[in-house]
Amino acid sequence: MRDRLFTDASVAVLYDALCAGRQDFDFYLPLVMSAGSVLDVGCGTGELLCRARQAGHQGRLCGLDPADAMLEQAYAKTQAYAKTQAYGQARAYATGHAHAKAGSGQTAIEWVLGDLSAVSWEREFDLAVMTGNAFQEFVADDALRVALAAIRSALVDGGRFAFETRNPAARAWEEWTAEHAVEVLDATGAVVRVAHDVETPCDGDTVHFTTTFTSPDWDRPQASRSTVRFRGAVEVASFLAGAGLVVEEQYGGWLRQPLTDTSPDIITIARRR
Ligand SMILES: C[S@@+](CC[C@H](N)C(=O)[O-])C[C@H]1O[C@@H](n2cnc3c(N)ncnc32)[C@H](O)[C@@H]1O
Question: Where is the Methyltransferase type domain (predicted)?
């Protein structure tokens, strides 16, 4: 489940640049801002919660991720921001799965290293989010069931869970090719080329791919093998129902377009029953 994309510091440091121009936060940020307490599952570099705090969110913000290199980026952001603001920080991940609320009361962001099998929150959050297609990291059915059950437990009665997953019918993996490689700058300003290569045969259900990072300024390329699971809307709703979460809203795009067969994403807001 954990690949070098997220656990290697030299690669994780590129993540935010690779996500430049993302539209999903225009959808998620208002949800976060209107919720008193928020859990971000698979928070990665913590960008969403950091933006929420900077936008004035006053309540509890907690980011959970098993990848230390990604969480290190999140922590660095809160540290940098703390230097300019009266702003708390947490370094819960330094001690593994333990989580702590350090910093100045409700201005702290909790960063928790681990996954949902390592936590036991009970009715603590008004909203849980899972952004950046982190939902697709749950490849095995049992892993997804465990995760959804833990998310339901973490939500207060009537709490909401918002997430997206790529629509398998849109076949996004067909564009994960060398022709669609992108270039970003690393921390030293070196140009890094990032290219995907999908393993064949590809059944469009469980997709294995390699991401290769190359730079003229690096000694050698870096490569990471990943696996993601594609699930359609009916399957998603079925897993949610099995976990005691009912689909309340579903969209096919970040501007809340209706979900169709060709929508790129399946964006769901579910509520704890
Ligand atoms: C594509 S990144 C998305 C990060 C962030 N949510 C965003 O929107 O930018 C996927 C994240 O899911 C995390 N992840 C992988 N397996 C996970 C699990 N079992 N539980 C929680 N997070 C997981 C990875 O470490 C990675 O940070």
Answer: 39-161
pLDDT at 106: 54
Q: Which of 43, 77, 119, 135 to mutate to test the pocket of ligand 1 (most atoms within 8 A of CB)?
A: 43
Find out whether the beta carbon of 134 lies less than 6 Å from any atom of ligand 1: yes
Q: Find the CATH number of the domain harbouring 258.
A: 3.40.50.150
| ipTM above 0.85 for this complex | yes
Q: Indicate if ligand 1 lies below 6 Å from the C-beta of 133.
A: yes
- Whether 255 shows a pLDDT value over 70: the answer reads yes
Give the model's pLDDT for residue 2.
58
CA distance 111 to 125: 15
Q: What is the pLDDT at residue 3?
A: 77
Amino acid identity at 248: E
Whether residue 134 has pLDDT greater than 80? yes
- Give, in order, the Cα–Cα distances in Å from 204 to each of 57, 130, 201, 266: 39, 22, 9, 16
The yes-or-no verdict on residue 82 having pLDDT over 70 is: yes
Pocket test for ligand 1, best of 70, 121, 151 (most atoms within 8 A of CB): 70
Name every residue whose Cβ is closer than 8 Å to that of residue 90 and which is 6 or more positions away in sequence.
75, 78, 100, 101, 102, 103, 108, 109, 110, 111
State the pLDDT confidence band at 85, using cuts at 50, 70 and 90.
low
In terms of domains, do 237 and 120 share one? Answer: yes
164 lines ligand 1 (CB under 6 A): no
Q: Which residue has the least CA distance to atom 20 on ligand 1?
A: 115
**Looking at residue 103, what is its pLDDT?**
43
Give yes or no for residue 41 CB within 6 A of ligand 1: yes
- Helices and strands of the chain, counted as H and E runs: 8, 11
Q: How many domains does the chain have?
A: 2
Q: Taking the alpha carbons of 178, 16, 127, 2 in that order, is the dihedral positive or negative? A: positive
